[in-house]
Amino acid sequence: MTILQKIALGYFVALMFAAALNYIPGLTDEQGLAFGIFALDIFDDSLHVASALWALAAALISHRAAKVFLLQFGALYLGDGVFGFFTGYGYLDLGIFTNGSDGLSFTLRRVLANLPHIALGGFALWAGLRLDRA
Fold first, then answer.
1. pTM
2. What is the 3-state composition of the chain as percent helix, strand, coil, each rounded to the nearest 5?
């Protein structure tokens, strides 16, 4: 198993954890916010599970499949996180279509809400572009 396949396998685990956040007692507050920062709904859970299964399949299929996953997933999730700063909602869970724009904001809550997608997407994109050359 190559380094990119191992990274894709790590994304499977991370994304399944993200999908399970709403169902682990104590991680959501009385308003349903995970860690008191962001709300996850069925669209978010579906997105995380679908992405996790994509990561698992890519990791098990081949080095090339893992690279394609990391590049495409990375671009999509990084873009979603950046877009969240501009509107308050992402496009992957269709939030921009179901909510009005909250405008550009760099409040701590907005940063923390978008940081997971920026970090996951940014690292995946970096790994797909740079670690394959090593």
1. 0.85
2. 70, 5, 25
